[in-house]
Design a protein that fits this description.
- The protein has one domain: NAD(P)-binding Rossmann-like Domain (Rossmann fold, 3-Layer(aba) Sandwich), CATH 3.40.50.720.
- It is 43% helix and 15% strand.
- The protein is built from six helices and seven strands; from the N terminus they run βαβαβαβαβαβαβ.
- Strands 3-2-1-4-5-6-7 form a seven-stranded parallel beta sheet, sandwiched between helices.
- α2 links the parallel β2 and β3.
- α1 crosses α6, α3 runs parallel beside α4 and α4 packs parallel to α5.
- It comes from Rhodocytophaga aerolata.
């Protein structure tokens, strides 16, 4: 697809992978609406990269409604949905609690699915659209104390496969990106960006993959791609 003048909704756009991806897509000529829960951080990011900010929580129905209203009123349509917003909770099997599952799944699975449902209505009307789900290497292989987070990403991977089969007849491309460890604010309760480490992935690498996947001619698409650091040790 052509990114110039493309209308893009990107969730979780105030920090890390979301912010850097929005920056790269805006530089390519796209019009990008970013969402997040922290208004101050979102406003700061939008001013820095030239995005349209919408303060909304994807984990709540009213947040999804607010996002879609902004799509109509501020974007004037939609060509791409990038489901980037995600949270994590980590605990051993003996210590995990049901409310942790509810908290993570409300964002990583339930809210994401309901937002995508609304976006697909627009895509079907125009017989085209692009969905990029940001999962994780944790959605391919679990890890110690990762029952809650990894299972939410396994669920996202499963949903992505279902949507891919369901939506191909409507010329809607559904893609999955699995980043390995990236030096961002993810997992930091204070939401402060971690310092970049020389050998580990940066948000820049993931943004590059997303941009490249979107730029492929519409007759083809990349179903799934995993991004690992070459030598993180």
């Amino acid at each position: 697809m052509q990114l110039k003048n493309a209308k893009i909704l990107l969730t979780g756009g105030s920090l890390g992978i979301g912010k850097e991806t929005a920056r790269v897509l805006i530089q390519a000529g796209a019009k990008v609406l970013i969402t997040g829960r922290n208004e101050q951080r979102l406003q700061q990011a939008s001013q820095e990269i030239g995005a349209i900010p919408v303060t909304a929580d994807i984990g709540k129905p009213e947040g999804i409604e607010k996002m879609m209203q902004a799509v109509h009123e501020q974007l004037g349509g939609l060509d791409v949905l990038i489901n980037n917003a995600g949270i994590g909770e980590f605990a051993s099997l003996e210590e995990l609690r049901l409310e942790q599952f509810h908290k993570v799944y409300a964002v990583n699975v339930f809210g994401l699915a309901m937002l995508t449902q609304q976006a697909v209505k627009l895509f079907k009307q125009q017989s085209s659209g692009n969905i990029i789900n940001i999962a994780s290497s944790a959605g391919v292989r679990g890890f110690k104390n990762g029952s809650i987070y990894a299972s939410s990403k396994f669920a996202l991977r499963g949903m992505t496969e279902c949507w891919r089969d369901e939506l191909r007849p409507f010329n809607i491309r559904v893609m999955l990106v699995n980043p390995s460890e990236v030096t961002t604010a993810f997992g930091n309760p204070e939401r402060k960006e971690r310092a970049e480490e020389t050998k580990k992935l940066r948000a820049t690498e993931i943004a590059h993959v997303i941009k490249a996947a979107l730029e492929m001619d519409n007759r083809g698409f990349i179903p799934e791609v995993s991004v690992w650091a070459t030598n993180p040790f």
